[in-house]
Design brief:
286 residues, 7-stranded parallel β-sheet, 13% strand, globular
């Protein structure tokens, strides 16, 4: 479907605009970090945002921040690993935004297990698969009619998958998580093929270490395990030295890449997997 030139190019030169003004978005996995920053990034560019989370622990505060930007925030609670919840989430989004949904950002995940394969209880590996892979796909499928309606009406709807560098930089003990995310990465490209005819773009961002409280706690644990004079700052410096830019990106920087994919700037981009890790890992040259 040919895009509407006015939608792609925006208003005439000199007239201020926001790239997502008048659009609607759903962000899953809304908490104090990545989900929050993605929701705020989309709202700053003019989108109204449905905030999906399992509990209301963090959502009211994020909703207040979205509304302070002059945008509408719609809290929606549910577990993406539950098919009935996914159907209800889609129904609540439709009730709030109507039949069209412009942007779906799948940010919910389960990191969970840290165990080597030879010692693993493989029944426990089902949980990251149920959340990171099947849960993401269930919610995407439930939202598909609304995304298709937006694609038909505007020539552009967007799905952004928040994936991970762990599928490229493999670590011992992370097989359950990396396996579930690798499966999602493969099927994301399949979705880009299958849904392109509806005007739906599907892209993925692959963060590495994301600087914030949870990573700081992890680095403090690493320093404690080392003992001696080790501090979280020294562990941070070692990790940062592995990146091309010399630091670990914050979640608001990862959110910027999501906003790019959601925007008309990426109108012809689909089926891609973007490393957003400060140059910690780079894809092979073409």
């Amino acid at each position: 479907m040919e895009p509407d030139p006015a939608f792609v190019t925006g208003p005439s030169q000199g007239e201020p605009t926001m790239m997502l003004e008048g659009l609607t978005a759903v962000v899953t996995g809304v908490g104090p970090g990545m989900g929050r920053d993605i929701a705020l990034g989309l709202a700053r560019e003019g989108a109204d945002v449905a905030l999906v989370a399992r509990t209301e622990r963090n959502v009211p505060a994020v909703a207040a921040e979205v509304e302070a930007l002059g945008r509408r925030a719609v809290p929606v609670y549910g577990n993406i690993a539950d098919g009935d919840d996914c159907a209800r989430i889609a129904a609540e989004v439709r009730a709030a935004f109507g039949d069209q949904l412009d942007i779906l950002v799948n940010s919910a995940f389960y990191g969970g297990l840290d165990e080597r394969f030879e010692d693993a209880d493989l029944d426990k590996w089902q949980r990251p698969i149920k959340v990171n892979y099947l849960g993401t796909l269930r919610l995407t499928q439930a939202m598909l009619p609304q995304l298709k309606a937006a694609g038909e009406a505007k020539g552009d709807a967007r799905i952004v998958m928040v994936n991970t560098m762990s599928v490229q930089v493999l670590e011992e003990g992370a097989g359950a998580y990396a396996g579930s995310k690798a499966a999602l990465g493969a099927v994301s490209k399949t979705l880009a093929r299958e849904l392109g005819g509806y005007g739906i773009r599907v892209n993925s961002v692959h963060p590495g270490y994301i600087w914030g409280d949870s990573v700081k706690i992890y680095l403090e644990w690493q320093a404690q395990e080392r003992g001696g004079d080790a501090t979280w700052e020294t562990v941070y410096e070692e990790l940062a030295a592995e990146t091309a830019l010399g630091y670990l990106p914050h979640s608001f920087e990862i959110a910027g890449a999501v906003v790019f994919y959601a925007s008309p700037l990426a109108r012809c981009v689909t089926g891609t997997a973007l490393p957003v890790n400060g140059g910690h890992w780079m894809p092979p040259s073409a």
